[in-house]
Amino acid sequence: MKDSYKIMIVDDDPHICEIVQAYCEREGFNCTYSHTGIEAMKLLASFNPDLIVLDVMLANENGIDWCRNARASTNAPILFLSSHEEDEVKIRALTDGGDDYVTKPFSPGVLMAKIKAHLRRVSSSRREQLLELPGLQLDFYAQSVNIGSKTVFLSKKEFSLLSYMAQNVNRVISVDTLFNLIWGMESLEDTRTVAVHISNLRKKIEDDPLHPERIITIRGAGYMLASS
């Protein structure tokens, strides 16, 4: 298991946060924590964790509600850590987006074993969601593209465009085809938006966007993602 996984702890008890952080960092994981739901939601966007350890009861907020809201922006495993032992609480936590549930007081060793088990599944899933091309690696899980050692995050439309072209590498795809597939025939926009998004993509993945070598314009026909 690689040691660069990012763990986010959300608990209003600083002592719990420090204990879990210490054990995570001992395993080589990159770990951070938050004490409030509002702060945690901001951290979720900036830190992009691979796994979240979440308390059921936060200050002025229910952790299960936070979990349900967070599911709109993350697929990371969420492991609940709580003093509540009632079955109805556990069932709701797991039904509303949680992946596991550990009761307090807890064994740090058992908690870390569970974290590692979930990360192994994340690792296996992510390997299946990578598409390799010369000089490019598309990560369907993170909706990003790796160019050498650099990771570039794309908008949803940009990633949809690039991933479709990557799955049809060296094939010319018409503007109408791209527009209908990515935006849909019922979209209020027009095909000119394809050119705008292609331009933005080139700025992010080309060494010289004015003289692109990856996304090639085939005049009168469309665009092509070149394999080399």
TrEMBL record:
Keywords attached to this entry: DNA-binding, Phosphoprotein, Transcription, Transcription regulation, Two-component regulatory system
One term of GO molecular function: phosphorelay response regulator activity
Sites of 4-aspartylphosphate modification: 55
One CC-aspect GO term: cytosol
Keyword presence, Cell membrane: no
Domain Response regulatory: 6-119
A GO BP annotation: regulation of DNA-templated transcription
Annotation: DNA-binding region: 128-227
Gene3D superfamilies assigned: 3.40.50.2300, 6.10.250.690, Winged helix-like DNA-binding domain superfamily/Winged helix DNA-binding domain (1.10.10.10)
Keyword ATP-binding in record: no
OmpR/PhoB-type domain span: 128-227
Protein name: Response regulator transcription factor
